[in-house]
Amino acid sequence: MASYTDIVNSLPRPIRLRFDSIGSFVQTIIAEQEDRLSPPERLSREDHELIKLAVFAYALNQLFREGSAAARAAVDEFQHLGVFGFQIGATSFEGRNDNVRLGDTLADKLMKCFEGTPLYEEITNARGLSELTLTVIRKVHSG
Questions:
Q1: CB proximity list for 32: less than 8 A, separation 6 or greater
Q2: CA separation (Å) from 50 to 3, 31, 34, 106, 131?
């Protein structure tokens, strides 16, 4: 299994910047929660990493799905204008082709990595970054 550092270092730079930003946000929430705990009850470094990865996966899943939704909306709008597809660079968007569905495909593959784990339900049912962070903190802390 890849380490936390390996995963983060393998991310493309724009995605890593997003990960770092989300990680800072999550770390702030963790720190606020840990202020209420005695030192032996505090979360380990590995727990912090797991929480950051889970919240990042949630955010990335949302980003991918929103990308496909935007592509579908653009294709549909162009279709209403009598234009049956458009191209950005060498990438064509028509109907519900692979490029239009790419975000959903990536989101499905990402979430498949979590299937069968306790995090799957938490990530798929979360209503936001803060809620998911707090939920995962509670689950990790309670063992």
A1: none
A2: 11, 15, 16, 21, 15
Distance (Å, whole) CA 136 – CA 58: 12
Tell me if residue 89 falls in helix, strand or coil: coil
Which helix (H) or strand (E) covers residue 24, if one does? helix 13-34
Check pLDDT > 90 for residue 82.
Answer: yes
**1-15, 19-33, 124-138: lowest mean pLDDT where?**
1-15
Whole-prediction pTM: 0.90
The answer, yes or no, to whether residue 123 has pLDDT greater than 90, is: yes
The count of other CB atoms within 10 Å of the CB of residue 58 is 26
With b for 16 or more beta-carbon neighbours within 10 A and e for fewer, the 61-87 pattern comes to bbebeebbeebbeebeeeeeeeeeeee
Cα angle at 28 between 24 and 31, to 5 degrees? 130
